[in-house]
Amino acid sequence: MTNHWIDIGNSDCILVMGSNAAENHPISMKWVGKAMENGATLLSVDPRFTRTSAKADFYTALRSGTDIAFLGGMINYIISNNLYDKEYVAYYTNASFILGKKFGFKDGLFSGYNKKTKSYDKSSWAFDKDKEGIPERDHSLKNSRCVFQQLKKHFSRYDLKKVSAITGTPTADLEKVYKTYAASGKKGKAATIMYAMGWTQHTVGVQNIRTMAMIQLLLGNMGVAGGGVNALRGESNVQGSTDHCLLWHIWPGYLKTARASDTSLDAYNKKWTPKTNDPLSANWWGNYPKYSVSFLKSMFGANATPVNGFGYDWMPKVDDGKGYSWLDLFDAMYRGEFTGFFAWGQNPACSGANANKNREAFTKLDWMVNVNLFENETGSFWRGPGMDPKKIKTEVFFLPCAASVEKEGSITNSGRWSQWRYKAADPPGDALPDGEIMVELMDKIRELYRVEGGAFPEPILNLKWDYTTNGKFDSHKVAKEINGYFLADVTVKGKMYKAGTLVPSFAFLQADGTTSSGNWLYCHSYTEKGNMAARRGTEDKSGIGLYSEWSWCWPVNRRIIYNRASVDRYGQPWDKEHPVITWTGEKWVGDVPDGGWPPMLTADGKVNPKTKYPFIMKPDGHAHMFGPGRADGPFPEHYEPLECPIEKNLMSGQFINPTIKEFGTDADTRATCDPRYPIVATTYRVTEHWQTGVMTRWQPWLLETQPQSFCEMSHELAKLKGVKNGDKVTVESARGKVEAVAIVTIRFKPFKIAGTTIHQVGLPWCFGWVTPKDGGDSSNLLTPSIGDPNTKIPETKAFMVNVRKA
Amino acid sequence: MADKSFFIDTTKCTACRGCQVACKQWNKLPATKTYNWGSFQNPADLSFSTFKLVRFREVESGGKVKWYFFPDQCRHCLEPPCKDTAEGFVDGAVIQDESTGAVIYTDKTRMLSSSNFEEVRQSCPYNIPRQDPGTGLISKCTMCFDRVGNGLLPACVKACPTGTMKFGDRGEILDMAKKRVAALQKKGFKKAQLLDADSIRAIFLVVDDPSIYYKFSVAQNDVGISRKLALRKLFRPATGLITGVAKL
Fold first, then answer.
1. Is A547 within 8 Å of A537 (Cβ atoms)?
2. What pLDDT, on a 0 to 100 scale, did the predictor assign at position A754?
3. Is the CB of B212 inside 8 Å of chain A's CB atoms?
4. What's CA A153's distance to the chain center, in Å?
5. Does A687 contact B17 at a Cβ distance shorter than 8 Å?
């Protein structure tokens, strides 16, 4: 979230699309309700009428996988009806930047496409620059090659009729949503988006989010209270795990994972430190070496020295151009490329797309360690459906671990609030907190390397490994290391900081090895003032629900990021009723501002030479209406899902995302426009179960409320298939099949897509064969293992199936 | 302690069923074996071990789909017919807590025969009481009067994340409920109304015809005081509220 949960209550219009907040983020509805009591409108857009839709002022449906068409139509509507915030767009975004003559777009492809590699050479997506090397701009937005005009041209193709033909949403409904949402383009009004996996889990997942981010920029909704782009994270601590580099492509704090071609620390820093020639751009990532070196100092402590590049050579490198995402790893496992696997706090046998492939991949392993609270389908795969234990060599170890309330530590919620939690009870039996398991494991590994040696022992033996107190894992020691220490007496801005003290904030981090920080973004979270995440101040000085003394929020306790765009160029809030920050003439008051520089204009309307542009994380200081960093194009474009019901993309000759790469194993089958699988399907969660249900399917009270897997379908489809409500049905895709109970409902309706009737069904993915015995299995047995080209998140929200009475 | 009441604002209910599960947790009620019967509503009905149940109802009107949620429970009538009926058979089987107004089924309900129970059930205008076929005990929502007596909110109210379930002194609750109706009517919900607010302590707010939510959302005329009961009432002294109910 750029904003936070409480802030939803400040909104004038809430769009829930690509998520189902009422069912999957139930507490959020408290704040949605508050906004509605204050007169806000709730819009729900979903293929299925959900419990969120039940609370909405307006609901409409779209076919799964057509969100860019839907939102592209909104961009077209906003621009052609002049509803965008001109000042905001012209001065805070790169809409005014002039594109080079080589940039172009034709029939679904941007300039620079290489058919053979299925990728783009992005050099033609560059801006024209003046002789100082600063992008040329036209703040009137009239230049035909400025981003705004190109944007206008691109999305003019998304007219109501065409969007309706793709999405199946009636044109009147499209207009109603567009008009209601776009009303927030007025100064002082804010609209927000609550999205989740319904947008991310597509082959165009990243571009789904980008389309919405562009809408928010057009309407001046970024940085303001009640606005923002708000990802509802699917786990209580998934924001924290992402911040601390759960994903392969980043180090903590969104630093880049080193590539094989980054042969030295200098080369690595040079490659990943962006530059700007514009003196008014803060270019915050220009500080990159301070953060990367401080991170290496955290990793290797005193062993990291300037001579050895602070241990950079000991960090693992990834091969250039190779992916190591979830889908890549399971593909490699399936092909027998590695032999051991830690399934830690996860259940890929049910949670992973194309679950049959994952289950089969486990049989190729020599060993698996399953760390979890309960037995699950992953650890017990060898005795699962279709498996012959006699033929499976994989040795499985089960390590019982502590539940969240049985250990101390922090969790970071969707709103980026790091909140300290205390241990409430001892874990049962032999169960241990994850930290203790890791310490014991690594101690043993280090001992083996020390005694027996091995290939490349340096990273293991040089590791700074002192996170215990009295031999036990100590979460406070880890939290302090994440914040970071001064490692020598350091003088910053005339003040001396003693070696061994905690660094007050990331502005103090150094690139010379005199500071450490396990995650620069969290530097400020555990300081000499104490554990900021443990704060429980309940006063709200802001008046807009920031509660700045409750827990701690990254970065530097800034509750609404990009908040310097919440004010005009004089530093006065667009929304006087909900000011996030305000310039008093001398300083900013309110939330922690996105940098303390003065506003862009002085009181007499001149550019203040001391100012910086508000979007400080971008090299040019402007939000990206044009996003040249994406793999699949600088503007979003509608492509059909990998599996879809219609034979051509109504937008262009390019059928599917031209940059996706399919896996080649025999398990990666697909069937698009195939009469055997004529029905669109999607998967989702239910309120009553958590993720794959490993923690909830063992709870009788929860199981009582949702006992069995189900397949929701329209009355029209049910009639066609001879299915009655409550019947058992078989749902089958090109990859697998599941049995489920039919819920025949008016909450699903057939779509009119390009003149034909298309049906859609949906299934939850929270069930599995281990327990309950009559509950059914995961709907991920149906989903394809195809990923978004930017993130490799799988496309589990739009695929094709058939349904028949079992 | 003042007379208590619930306010159940169905416009805020998302059917998360936190109330339903919290009720089971506090009252130590076992889960029943359920099957998906083509509905999210599960268990399908109230039972001896299910005092609180979110009922789901989907309807279509004017081309618009509506999905109504109704967190059903005992209404704790100001003058509970079930108490009158039960007392006709066993004195003290059903009592009313003077301080809160909670209608409580005691251990003595096990002394009621199954036909006695049928009469008790039929006398309830909201179809609430359920009997354990094993022990013969009759049960339903207790208003968590053991919690309330100790200054806590009922478990269902405490668990509710959306503000659907409210609980407090009756005067304040009625006030809150009426204000909410007015606000919803102003917003265009012409049918916004409180259900039987003057005669019960669990006051539902709905925005459509009550019967669409659930048959027993409002008191049913064909139940309540039966002829038999009316006659019996005639020939014995009125009992009214009993005093000094023991705390659990």
1. yes
2. 87
3. no
4. 29
5. yes
Which amino acid is present at B160? C
Q: Residue A726: which of B21, B37, B162 has the nearest Cβ? A: B37
Query: Mean pLDDT score of chain A, rounded to an integer?
Result: 97
Helices A147-156 and A67-80: crossing angle, nearest 10°?
120
Cβ-based neighbours of A445, under 8 Å, separated by 6 or more: A460
Structure tokens at A501: 């003290």
Question: For residue B237, what pLDDT is reported?
Answer: 46
Give the closest of A51, A59, A707 to B14, CB-based: A51
Query: CB atoms < 10 A from the CB of A761, how many?
Result: 25
- Nearest-angstrom CA–CA distance, A571 and A59: 37
pLDDT tens-digit map of B185-198:
999 999 999 999 99
Predicted ipTM of the assembly? 0.95
For A:210-239, CB contacts with B below 8 A are none
Chain A, chain B: beta-carbon pairs less than 8 Å apart: 103
Q: How far apart are CA A388 and CA A366, in angstroms?
A: 16
Decide: B84 and B130 in contact? Cβ < 8 Å.
no
pLDDT digits (tens, 9 = 90+) for A183-225: 999 999 999 999 999 999 999 999 999 999 999 999 999 999 9
Strands B94-96 and B103-105: antiparallel
CA-CA distance, A340 to A588, in Å (whole number)?
54
Q: Do B67 and A37 touch (CB under 8 A)?
A: no
R_g of chain A computed on alpha carbons = 26
Burial of A176 (0-12, 13-18, 19+ CB in 10 A): middle
* CA B244 – CA B92 distance, rounded (Å): 12
Q: Which residues contact A493 (CB under 8 A, 6 or more apart)?
A: none
Packing angle of the helix pair A355-362, A326-334 (nearest 10 deg):
50
- Residue A126 CB-density burial (10 A; 0-12 exposed, 13-18 middle, 19+ buried): middle
Average pLDDT over residues A703-719: 98
Strand partners, A710: A741
Query: Does A701 sit within 8 Å of B21, measured CB to CB?
Result: yes
Q: Summarize the confidence of residues A475-499 as an average pLDDT.
A: 97
Q: Indicate the SS3 state at residue A313.
A: helix
Structure confidence by residue, pLDDT tens digits, A433-467: 999 999 999 999 999 999 999 999 999 999 999 99
Interface of A with B in 642-701 (CB under 8 A): 687-688, 700-701
Answer whether A707 sits within 8 Å of B42, measured CB to CB: yes
Q: Which of B143, B92, B75 is nearest to B245 (CA)?
A: B92
| Chain A residues touching B69 at Cβ < 8 A | 51, 54
Query: How far apart are the CA of A536 and the nearest CA of chain B, in angstroms?
Result: 20
The whole-number mean pLDDT for each consecutive block of 10 residues of chain B, a chain of 248 residues, reads: 89 98 98 98 98 98 94 97 96 95 97 95 97 95 96 98 97 98 96 97 98 96 57 50 40
C-beta pairs of A421-429 under 8 Å, 24+ apart in sequence: A427/A400, A427/A401, A427/A402, A427/A403, A429/A400
Of A52, A744, A747, nearest to B38 by CB-CB distance is: A744
- For strands A109-110 and A105-106, give the pairing: antiparallel
pTM given for the model: 0.96
B chain contacts of residue A746, beta-carbon cutoff 8 Å: 58-60, 65
pLDDT tens digits, one per residue of A559-573: 999 999 999 999 999
C-alpha to C-alpha distance for B12 and B16, rounded to whole angstroms: 11
- Locate A744 and state its tokens: 């025949």
Let me know how many helices (H) and strands (E) chain B has, helices first: 8, 10
Instruction: Please report, to the nearest 10 degrees, the dihedral formed by the alpha carbons of residues A193, A198, A661, A365 taken in order.
Output: 130
